[in-house]
Amino acid sequence: MTSSTASSADSTVPVRFGLVGTGPWAHRTYAPTLADHKAVDLVGVWGRRLDAAAELARAHGTSAYDDVDALFAACDAVAFAVPPDVQAPLAARAAAAGCHLLLDKPLATRPDEARAVVDAAEAAGVASTVFCTLRHAPLTAPWIAEQAAADGWFTARADWFGALYTPGDDAHVRATTPWRAERGALWDVGPHALSVLLPILGDVTSVAAHAGPGDTVHLVLRHTGGASSTATLSLTTPPAAGGTVVELRGTHGVSTMPAGRGTAPEALASAVDSLLEAARGGTPHPCDARFGLRLTAILTAAERSLASGRPEPGPAQ
Q1: What is the distance between the alpha carbons of residues 189 and 164, in angstroms, rounded to a whole number?
Q2: E strands, the chain, where?
Q3: 291 in a domain, yes or no?
């Protein structure tokens, strides 16, 4: 273990965390959760705009950094709240500096950039966790684990109907993250759907994708072991029609994911706990950077299917 991560092996010593990002997600969720976590010492914030980093740092009694590598040198772990194509190269640098990684989803939008993060983390021997919310939320995480332990699932459906972009609501569109407006539901809520389906039904062996209204995407997936699933993903759903449902059918009957998920800060605090446990014990978390790479590879295959109109084989591991 490198000198910068040595203190993370002692559960009585707060782990020095840095935060990369100053956008709405960093303000609302990451910074307050890290600042309030009893096992964390939030030592600094870096952002692409120093004035924004300074404002966020002042609000949580920490320091703003104008040099991201200096922040990495001061940390045991780094949390990322930046767009995926900004996150991936910075995460690889943080891993090379000996920092454990708390990553946002998707890890990256290109498999080669996601693989670079995995390679850097494995070369440095640091732990990683991708914050797929449902894998850490207090009600859904136990449900996913329970269903993954059961055999006999035949098929599943995962519907993510969001109203992030309401037609005519220009103010709402301007307020959201630009990369979401560009990449749409496939890349924003697609990782959530896959993060539930894969641990229960197994890896994806083929994917077919079809466009619906707005940014809606319909996926048809085949999984190892023969099960199939569908996922409907949208951020342009009429507000009255929004909602999330995951339903499984198999030899045990029907199981539906609990509707209540708690708050994002609760789930993030659990993700921090998972990362620290992986850092201390050396056992990778199931939702680590390698899992994040898998999500990126499957979503890239879905993009190819959208463009070609044909099913795509599940990308090689």
Answers
A1: 11
A2: 15-20, 40-46, 63-65, 77-80, 100-104, 128-131, 153-161, 204-211, 217-223, 228-234, 243-250, 253-256, 312-313
A3: no
pTM for this structure? 0.92
Per the CB < 8 A criterion, the answer to whether 197 and 221 are in contact is yes
CB count in 10 Å sphere of residue 201: 25
Residue 237: CB partners within 8 Å, gap ≥ 6?
Answer: 161, 162, 163, 214, 216
Domain identity same for 300 and 180: yes
Find the domain containing 192 and state its range.
140-257+296-313
| Residue 121 belongs to domain with CATH number | 3.40.50.720
d(CA 111, CA 107): 9
Q: Of 79, 81, 124, whose CA–CA distance to 102 is shortest?
A: 79
d(CA 235, CA 161): 6
| 10-60 confidence digits (pLDDT tens) | 567 899 999 999 999 999 999 999 999 999 999 999 999 999 999 999 999
* Secondary structure (DSSP) of 208-226: EEEE-STT-EEEEEEETTS
Question: Do 95 and 183 sit in the same domain of this protein?
Answer: no
CA dist., res. 218 & res. 208, Å (int): 8
Q: Are 37 and 43 in contact (CB under 8 A)?
A: no
Cβ atoms of residues 219 and 230 within 8 Å: yes
